[in-house]
């Protein structure tokens, strides 16, 4: 994939080298200019720039002249400066820059690299802005868009709840406190009755900031609070921090639920998800169909080609499972070379056909590892019964799998 270009405008050669390194590490292609004149000479490239990192003071542009020049040419800019006085800061923040970073410490460069990585993926993050005032709503939307977020708006609490139904994968909601009918506090309560603090962040905003209102927002389910008029740096820091909180929890959740080797769901998650489904059918009116499968003679693969080759077979099998079964059927690696597919209420004939097709695909699969071509087969047990417990259905599937092994392997046995 072609790398996106980031323009680095910097007159100090050592800092230019650091920036080039950071930009490359963040996955972009660095383009450099050491003077304002060089920036102007690159005008033909502006449409191809993702953004620019702009040093405030250049030999031929000592007062930040390169900043409005680039912004006027639709190049989004992150300003880096060695000057930390309030006047420079205010001057810079009066421009619609992405961010403003002072070159005070090593941390500034780490922050810059992190910011670049985020700017590239922020379009995947949904944020909802709730405010009855059009101008306030549009202002916050505009600030978020500057950081490339996927922004949605709502003019009332009721509209916000509708947006939530349409976009349950929203990561952050920024809501005003003062709104007719349903205020921001009530909206927090409503959101929390459906989504926990671990799934979706809420930042409350109010012009009447006082400590008790902050506490009220937090006690009613908000993760954070901003007082109007807020400082842009504080706004962006809080937005980033609250989104990263949700992302970290998503990562932890994913790691806890998936098998590290194959990326399939793990045994714990499979049990957790399937067990209640079976309990739902306690009245025996609906069947549950579950397939348990085990790679044949897997020990001899390890013994002949080594454990790493065995791992490659497991990964290839998992990939084949992901390609073969639709997301409607939960698939998991439940043990060493053992996999389970919950086929829900699929009928006996369809389930047998689906699983037998998979068995054949497995038989036809070849995996190249270390110059060897390895082939494997799989044995499958399918149960299609009204067992009243999850343990019962697992035992049944295991018995059928054992029967498949006893019958010579590479076969599907259905009850
Ligand atoms: N490479 C690799 N091997 C594993 C992993 N987990 C379990 N195994 C191996 O899987 C093998 C399972 O062997 P057995 O239970 O004897 O079964 P089998 O050789 O597949 O024989 P049948 O099931 O009777 O066809 C053992 O050698 C385990 O060490 C893993 O994560 N990676």
UniProtKB/TrEMBL annotation:
<dbReference type="InterPro" id="IPR011006">
    <property type="entry name" value="CheY-like_superfamily"/>
</dbReference>
<keyword id="KW-0808">Transferase</keyword>
<dbReference type="InterPro" id="IPR043128">
    <property type="entry name" value="Rev_trsase/Diguanyl_cyclase"/>
</dbReference>
<dbReference type="GO" id="GO:0052621">
    <property type="term" value="F:diguanylate cyclase activity"/>
</dbReference>
<dbReference type="InterPro" id="IPR000160">
    <property type="entry name" value="GGDEF_dom"/>
</dbReference>
<dbReference type="Pfam" id="PF00072">
    <property type="entry name" value="Response_reg"/>
</dbReference>
<dbReference type="Pfam" id="PF00990">
    <property type="entry name" value="GGDEF"/>
</dbReference>
<feature type="domain" description="Response regulatory">
    <location>
        <begin position="126"/>
        <end position="243"/>
    </location>
</feature>
<feature type="domain" description="Response regulatory">
    <location>
        <begin position="5"/>
        <end position="118"/>
    </location>
</feature>
<protein>
    <recommendedName>
        <fullName>diguanylate cyclase</fullName>
        <ecNumber>2.7.7.65</ecNumber>
    </recommendedName>
</protein>
<keyword id="KW-0548">Nucleotidyltransferase</keyword>
<dbReference type="InterPro" id="IPR050469">
    <property type="entry name" value="Diguanylate_Cyclase"/>
</dbReference>
<keyword id="KW-0597">Phosphoprotein</keyword>
<dbReference type="InterPro" id="IPR001789">
    <property type="entry name" value="Sig_transdc_resp-reg_receiver"/>
</dbReference>
<dbReference type="InterPro" id="IPR029787">
    <property type="entry name" value="Nucleotide_cyclase"/>
</dbReference>
<feature type="modified residue" description="4-aspartylphosphate">
    <location>
        <position position="55"/>
    </location>
</feature>
<feature type="modified residue" description="4-aspartylphosphate">
    <location>
        <position position="176"/>
    </location>
</feature>
<feature type="domain" description="GGDEF">
    <location>
        <begin position="286"/>
        <end position="415"/>
    </location>
</feature>
